[in-house]
Amino acid sequence: MFKKCAEVGVEVTIYSNGEAARFPNTGRIIELLNDTVYMDGVTFVSSAGNNGPALSTGGAPGAASLAAISVGAYIPPEGVDLLYGARTKHDGNLYTWSSRGPV
């Protein structure tokens, strides 16, 4: 998948699939991702994962690669009221299930 992105001229790819990672920045998938980012110039954005709220719960490939931009799930203040009917004012925050760093 990674090389195909480079072959067809993709500049930015968003990947929202992943799994837990035991060791950061290791493994065949991470090697392929790193090559695609560093050698082919494709920007890679991925979800941090859904294993939060504890620290160091970021998953692979996003949070496990130094080449990827890893993004958590955020709920804005308006979303708290709209999605959950909250009657009091709330600040925006990460969703409770969103993974967090550091990796």
Structural class: alpha/beta
Beta fraction of the residues?
Answer: 15-25%
Ends distance: 24 Å
Largest sheet descriptor: 3 strands, parallel
As a whole number of angstroms, the C-alpha radius of gyration is 16 Å
Mean pLDDT over all positions: 84
Low-confidence stretches: none
Helix content: 25-40%
The overall number of domains is 1
Going across the major beta sheet, what is the strand order? Answer: 1-2-3
The succession of helices and strands, N to C, reads: HEHEEEHE
Number of helices: 3
Number of strands: 5
Shape: elongated
Annotation keywords:
103 residues, alpha/beta, three-stranded parallel sheet, Peptidase S8/S53 domain-containing protein, Peptidase_S8/S53_dom, Peptidase_S8/S53_dom_sf, serine-type endopeptidase activity
Structure notes:
The protein is 26% helix and 16% strand. It is an alpha/beta fold. The chain has one domain (2-94). It has a three-stranded parallel β-sheet with strand order 1-2-3, with helices on one face. It has a two-stranded antiparallel ribbon with strand order 4-5. The model has no long low-confidence stretch (mean pLDDT 84).
In short:
The protein has 103 residues and is of the alpha/beta class. The chain has three helices and five strands, in the order αβαβββαβ.
